[in-house]
Amino acid sequence: MKCHRIWCAIALTGLLAASAVVHAQDVGDYRLNPGDVLQVSVWNEEELNREVLVRPDGGVSFPLVGDVNAAQRTVTDVQDAIRTRLASYVPDAVVTVSVLAVNGNKVYVLGKVARPGEYVMSSTLDVMQVLAVAGGVTSFAAENKIQILRRGPDGKQQAIAFRYSDVKEGNALATNILLKSGDIVVVP
């Protein structure tokens, strides 16, 4: 009976590891933002398990490690940075970083929509989806003059034109771009 339980535990561990790999691939490309909440765990080091907030400056603080830049980095990048800095204190540390909340992954919708405001994106959204979340454009909106304002890595802002009426008719679908954190959708 004991042997059966051990094999069941081994099989369950294998299934959990496989599902963790799939989950990691799903979120592997997500770039962290200020406001996101992370769970950092160090195996077999209970006092090094804690939630950390990505600060407005993009950093996170962790015991023995100090500050680590997390903004616009992947979970794997942050995990590796913590493991590397922790190595002199905890050799061969097994570090796990998980995203608990994507509070910093925001887009903004302004202008003639039913509910303008700030929206947290828990998944990748395109322009039409965000407009739907904002309650849709009003009857007074200039549907073909919508702009997506996006700030590039150099800090300069660019405007991307979006013709709502074309997309809703099934035309120009390539213009229904995926939004990035910080994008502003302006509906005049």
Please give a structural write-up.
The structure is a single chain. This protein is of the alpha+beta class and 188 residues long. It folds into two domains: 73 residues, wza like domain (wza like fold, 2-Layer Sandwich), CATH 3.30.1950.10; 82 residues, Outer membrane lipoprotein wza fold like (Roll). It is built from four helices and ten strands; from the N terminus they run αββββαβββαββαβ. The chain has a five-stranded mixed sheet, with helices on one face. A hairpin with a 3-residue loop joins β3 and β4.
Helix-strand pattern: HEEEEHEEEHEEHE
Q: Termini separation (Å)?
A: 70 Å
CATH topology of the largest domain, anyone? Outer membrane lipoprotein wza fold like
CATH class of the largest domain: Alpha Beta
User: What is the average of the pLDDT values?
Assistant: 85
Question: Topology of this protein?
Answer:
Layout: H1 2-27, E1 37-42, E2 50-53, E3 59-62, E4 66-69, H2 75-86, E5 95-101, E6 106-111, E7 117-120, H3 127-133, E8 146-151, E9 157-162, H4 164-168, E10 184-187
Parallel strand pairs: 6-10
Antiparallel strand pairs: 1-2, 1-5, 3-4, 6-7, 8-9, 8-10
Structure described in brief:
By secondary structure, the chain is an alpha+beta fold. The chain has four helices and ten strands; from the N terminus they run H-E-E-E-E-H-E-E-E-H-E-E-H-E. The protein has a five-stranded mixed β-sheet, covered by helices on one side. A three-stranded antiparallel β-sheet has the order 2-1-5, covered by helices on one side. A two-stranded antiparallel sheet has the order 3-4.
